[in-house]
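[recover] target loaded
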């Protein structure tokens, strides 16, 4: 399997949600200062590209952005809260080979409370049901594990199995991107509930081996999340691939290695220079050394995905070992 570099394009910091684990909505960009779709023409072909925000569908020119990137990307992904159903479904119909993940943080009351949205769960579910009518098949929900939603993880997984859609997950972080420094989970109950969630993934209820294998892979990614939650010392995570395996572009066009650092490490701007020049610059080499020395120990799926491609025997061994342990009634060996 080919290792494909991922570019995450933060198209806007405007957001119609007010999530309690992310304060982007308190620091919105103005539409006039956000780079337009022509700037994305500078990106190389063959990237895996994630269109994100804020809420990307607040961009009036979101279709122009997809029109530019759809033929260039190996896979084009939209991360959204699902509020603008008609706009999202229109994108799915026009660009059927994209990947769409709709954010949910729990069942209705908890989700809407966490995200500060009115009827947010209803909008997300309606969007997913409408997406299932389109030719776009790579659809699903995503959840950020946080101090007040871990008890809903299994319910969200069961919902996704019933709907036959994907469920991606991450965990709360603190960084310049989230404008947070108090995200943390310190709870034995959270660890217990998370282990139940991972066991559900390892004993997947999905139909078809392809879908089951995806669940097993997500279980392995959650190994790093679990060890992060229980406060393990560094050393269990693969080396960070920021700037080598993935990069970010913010709404102003600034290129940086990741969204997990305390401050944004800007190496250049695609408004002002070519992407090739930016990535070959002395600034990029300087920031790459900072990445190597970074001790933040982030648990982002993009790092895990690339490591799984490079060393597939590592997750395979872990998955087989723990499926055997579960079958024998034992706990997961993290």
């Amino acid at each position: 399997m080919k290792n494909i570099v991922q570019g995450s394009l933060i198209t806007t910091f405007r957001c119609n949600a007010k999530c309690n684990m992310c304060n982007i909505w308190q620091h919105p960009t103005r539409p006039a200062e956000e780079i337009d779709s022509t700037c994305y023409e500078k990106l190389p072909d063959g990237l895996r590209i994630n269109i994100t925000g804020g809420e990307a569908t607040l961009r009036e020119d979101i279709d122009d952005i997809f029109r530019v990137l759809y033929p260039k990307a190996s896979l084009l992904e939209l991360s959204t809260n699902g509020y603008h159903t008609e706009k999202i479904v229109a994108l799915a119909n026009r660009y059927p080979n994209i990947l769409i993940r709709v954010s949910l943080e729990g069942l209705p009351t908890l989700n809407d409370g966490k995200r500060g949205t009115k009827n947010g769960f209803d909008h997300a579910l309606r969007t997913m049901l409408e997406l299932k009518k389109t030719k776009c098949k790579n659809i699903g929900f995503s959840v950020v594990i946080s101090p007040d939603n871990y008890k809903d993880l299994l319910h969200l997984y069961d919902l996704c199995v019933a709907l036959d859609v994907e469920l991606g997950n991450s965990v709360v972080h603190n960084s310049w991107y989230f404008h947070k420094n108090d995200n943390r989970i310190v709870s034995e109950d959270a660890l217990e509930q998370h282990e139940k969630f991972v066991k559900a993934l390892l004993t997947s209820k999905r139909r078809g081996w392809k879908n089951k294998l995806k669940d097993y892979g997500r279980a392995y990614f959650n190994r790093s999340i679990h060890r992060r939650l229980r406060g393990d010392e560094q050393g269990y995570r693969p080396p960070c691939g920021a700037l080598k395996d993935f990069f970010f572009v913010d709404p102003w066009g600034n290129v940086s290695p990741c969204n997990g650092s305390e401050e944004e490490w800007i190496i250049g701007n695609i408004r002002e220079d070519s992407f090739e020049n930016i990535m070959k610059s002395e600034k990029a080499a300087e920031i790459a050394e900072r990445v190597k020395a970074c001790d933040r120990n982030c648990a982002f799926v993009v790092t895990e995905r690339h490591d799984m491609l490079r060393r597939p025997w590592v997750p395979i061994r872990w998955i087989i070992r723990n499926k055997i342990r579960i079958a024998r009634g034992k706990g997961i060996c993290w």
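[recover] notes: The mean pLDDT is 95.
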